[in-house]
Amino acid sequence: xxxxxxxxxxxxxxxxxxxxxxxxxxxxxxxxxxxxxxxxxxxxxxxxxxxxxxxxxxxxxxxxxxxxxxxxxxxxxxxxxxxxxxxxxxxxxxxxxxxxxxxxxxxxxxxxxxxxxxxxxxxxxxxxxxxxxxxxxxxxxxxxxxxxxxxxxxxxxxxxxxxxxxxxxxxxxxxxxxxxxxxxxxxxxxxxxxxxxxxxxxxxxxxxxxxxxxxxxxxxxxxxxxxxxxxxxxxxxxxxxxxxxxxxxxxxxxxxxxxxxxxxxxxxxxxxxxxxxxxxxxxxxxxxxxxxxxxxxxxxxxxxxxx
Length: 307
Hints:
The chain is of the alpha/beta class. Helices cover 39% and strands 15% of the residues. The protein has helices spanning 19-30, 43-46, 65-73, 83-89, 121-131, 149-165, 187-200, 215-225, 240-252, 262-265, 269-283, 289-292, and strands spanning 36-40, 78-82, 97-101, 103-104, 116-117, 134-142, 170-174, 204-207, 229-233, 257-260. Helix 7 (187-200) packs parallel to helix 8 (215-225) and helix 9 runs parallel beside helix 11.
């Protein structure tokens, strides 16, 4: 079982005068449970248009506002987007909790990825004030194994220090890449990634789920993260029934939740909201899979493309 909020250990670099702010943000991120259901919208930059248009993708997903509409109707803890999306839509969706991704790249890069800082902590805090939304945390993607690793490590470290100084939790997206990484899904690789996150002082780390997906492998990853919470990526578009089984197994192994994108935003607003209601019951309410799971079809309205 995850630690209760009352048992949470404050990072030592959160000043005492910022602990109330940090506590508020942590409660919002986890709904007071220590678990997260994060709606990931950073794919708009990371995957370009590939995830937002095509067969079995609801036509509404091509419009960036679809993501905000989903978040507005669903019981997610926060919406993770890049600075620019928050700047364009945040004023219209002020009641949402936001995690702002501070760096990013596209999927046009090679296997030795680089990801530069796009916005600072100060700029992000100022944006939240101007737009009137609540900034619950910040995020940063890190690619250990890339030749750009030293700079990304230094950036991630400084972001965590500065964010904590402002009472903001930090989520690290960590994806080992590069010539020495033979299998990104290997449990040793992923356990190393979460160990890197806790070494940097991250509050939460998002990683790919290890394969094979077993309770034993999840437990190994979670244990390697220590006091840093582990959430897993929802992954590529797949059968929702399989996704539920995977998330249930991950939680059983000690996962703190999931960051999910394609398996939600590619659906209609109604279907996306329904799926998130089910995930909320599974993640926040500790309900069993048998109590929440019902067969779900992945069929969505298709747009006929012009020839």
